TrEMBL record:
PROSITE patterns recorded: PROKAR_LIPOPROTEIN
Protein's UniProt keywords contain NADP: yes
The organism's taxonomic lineage, starting at the top: Eukaryota, Metazoa, Spiralia, Lophotrochozoa, Mollusca
UniProt protein name: Sepiapterin reductase
Coiled-coil ranges per UniProt: none
Principal subcellular localization: cytoplasm
GO biological process, one term: tetrahydrobiopterin biosynthetic process
InterPro entries: Biopterin_syn/organic_redct (IPR051721), NAD(P)-bd_dom_sf (IPR036291), SDR_fam (IPR002347)
Organism: Pinctada imbricata
Amino acid sequence: MFSKRTCCIVTGASQGLGACIAEHFINKLSEDSVVIRLSRNVQKMEAMQFSNPSVKTILCAKYDQSNIDEKYFDSLLVDICRENNIKTTDFQQAVMVHNAGDLGDISKFTSEMSDAATVRHCFDVNCKAAREMFFKTVAVEFPRTRVLNYSPGPCDTDMQERCRTETADTDIQSYFKMAHKEGKLLSPDTSISKMMDVLKQNKYNSGDHVDYYDEL
């Protein structure tokens, strides 16, 4: 898949796993491909440097996945393509990586969350189980579309650090602190390298859930 002219879109690409995913595709796809990175933090994406990119066209744009306004969503990629003179006919395939997530306020238990807007924001961004079932349905209804649900394992990211230091549940804090101390957390690069191997081997059934610890 990496040799084809590809339009690759990665959400949540300003840090952690998302930034790592984008970099792997930037380093592996053909030079006439395009990688579009989306995140709420454009400055972080613009500041990123890539040591040996194989892709010539690397773009970034602001995207807040919690904004579910239909016009905002529908115009996003249309505007990016128009502004950069990109046509869908330029590509042999499209790759979409849904990675964006938000921890929200983890210093509180659910019983302490009385702000409806805060709760809604978490659901709008993080409906992981529902998203996985949706993609399984996409795989069945659109057999020409390859769908992979990848679980990266426990990775040492900024979000993981917040879990170790800010979460209200002391048991969870202790668990992740111990995992970090004992070196049991994965680096983003280690986990995403496994994901790229899964994509390269292409042995999974469309819609499958593949975990980092699964054997290829």
